[in-house]
Write a sequence for this structure.
């Protein structure tokens, strides 16, 4: 079920590489340093379920199911908590501190995921 | 098993309690549906149309009610673009029952996204039902974003904690439980310590002979934990009820009918009025199951429950919407 973290990171880097090559000014280029990452919610699961990013990166979750889901930190206190995401709705969170962030869907708690921030 | 007639249908979990022959026969008579009686832990089903031909002792209850579930008002995807219409069809079915139910139970997921207009729509549609008393418990879709405050204000005023309560009807003790709050990562439905303590206290002075009906959204038995179709502390709740001779547990959540008998407890899940979900493990996920439009009403349904005093058994009827 879990895809390799390294594969995901390399995809993210590849995507960034393409967009960076099209960057016309230094402001955009500077922003590329903060990597973005995507998590898709499909079939009641987070994909990838585990993600490694660098400090300052933003992760965006997109719900592609017919059923609403949430993205909620499993930590106490919660590091982040989305509103309920209906089909195709997104939630983004910027990770400013290193650490391992476990999260889940509070509607369907069997759905769990993890973001490792280095 | 005395009295088993050739028209009697044994309950089949995968076919809404109605086998194909029985289904066709019901269609030919007076619409689909089955009347079920649980006696000594055994459930028997009869087509509605047979009720009139049966010994009144078997069917004439002193109390009957109907259960509806998972109306998911606001859902508009391919599995059912018109959940209002199918809820209305359920109301028509209820109004057409030969014995008018005294009240309705809604076992949660009234709404799809906890929006006020979704709750409004359900309340409006249910106004057309002959039984005007509706007892609700929330599903996880009803407590999104506000920890269920809206749901409590509308549907569970005067309840305890997150919305649990009990009431008595003609000697039957009904208990509405909430198992959709404060769910933990990786976990299942949860009742929590406060509710379990309340439950124990609620039933402690009742006679052992009191029939008990528990209703909650997520199944209180382990239907399929891999999909979250179970409640982590249900065993503790059931242990509070072990002194009773007859306990029936009614749930929703899984959008299909299933039954199980375990000792003095009969578990029953109701179909959704909105859209069906796959049988446990029969799909990649428990998401909405798309069935051809002409088949949709046959997989959506209501449950009619008839309490037969003196036998301390509850008959459960599942009826599809056409």
């Amino acid at each position: 079920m879990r895809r390799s973290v390294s594969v995901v990171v390399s995809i993210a880097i590849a995507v960034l590489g393409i967009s960076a090559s099209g960057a016309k000014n230094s402001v955009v280029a500077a922003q590329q340093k903060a990597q973005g990452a995507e998590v898709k919610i499909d079939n009641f699961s987070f994909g990838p379920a585990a993600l490694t990013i660098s400090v300052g990166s933003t992760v965006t979750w997109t719900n592609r199911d017919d059923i609403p889901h949430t993205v909620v930190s499993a930590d106490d206190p919660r590091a982040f908590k989305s509103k309920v995401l209906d089909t195709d709705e997104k939630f983004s969170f910027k990770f400013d501190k290193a650490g391992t962030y476990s999260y889940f869907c509070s509607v369907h708690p069997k759905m769990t995921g993890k973001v490792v921030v280095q | 098993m005395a009295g088993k007639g050739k028209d009697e249908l044994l309950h089949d979990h995968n076919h809404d309690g109605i086998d194909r022959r029985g289904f066709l026969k019901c269609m030919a008579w007076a619409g689909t549906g089955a009347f079920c009686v649980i006696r000594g832990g055994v459930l028997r089903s009869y087509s509605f149309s047979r009720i009139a031909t049966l010994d009144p002792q078997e069917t004439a209850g002193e109390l009957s009610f109907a259960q509806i579930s998972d109306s998911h008002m606001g859902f508009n995807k391919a599995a059912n673009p018109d959940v209002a219409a199918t809820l209305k069809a359920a109301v028509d079915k209820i109004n057409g029952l030969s014995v008018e139910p005294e009240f309705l139970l809604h076992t949660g997921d009234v709404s799809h996204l906890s929006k006020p207009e979704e709750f409004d729509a359900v309340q409006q549609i249910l106004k057309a039902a002959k039984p005007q008393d509706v007892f609700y418990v929330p599903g996880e879709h009803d407590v999104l974003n506000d920890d269920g405050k809206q749901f409590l204000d509308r549907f569970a005023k005067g309840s305890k904690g997150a919305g649990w309560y009990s009431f008595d009807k003609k000697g039957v003790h009904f208990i509405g439980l909430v198992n959709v709050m404060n769910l933990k990562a990786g976990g299942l439905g949860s009742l929590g310590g406060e509710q379990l303590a309340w439950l124990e206290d609620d039933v402690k002075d009742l006679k052992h002979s009191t029939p008990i009906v528990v209703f909650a959204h997520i199944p209180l038995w382990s239907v399929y934990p891999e999909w979250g179709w179970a409640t982590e502390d249900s065993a503790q709740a059931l242990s509070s009820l072990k002194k009773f001779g007859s306990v029936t547990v009614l749930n929703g959540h899984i959008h299909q009918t299933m039954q199980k008998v375990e000792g003095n407890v009969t578990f029953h899940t109701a179909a959704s009025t909105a859209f069906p979900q796959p049988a446990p493990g029969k799909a990649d996920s428990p998401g909405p199951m798309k069935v051809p439009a002409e088949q949709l009403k046959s997989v959506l349904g209501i449950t009619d429950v008839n309490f037969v005093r003196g036998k301390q058994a509850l008959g459960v009827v599942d009826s599809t919407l056409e």
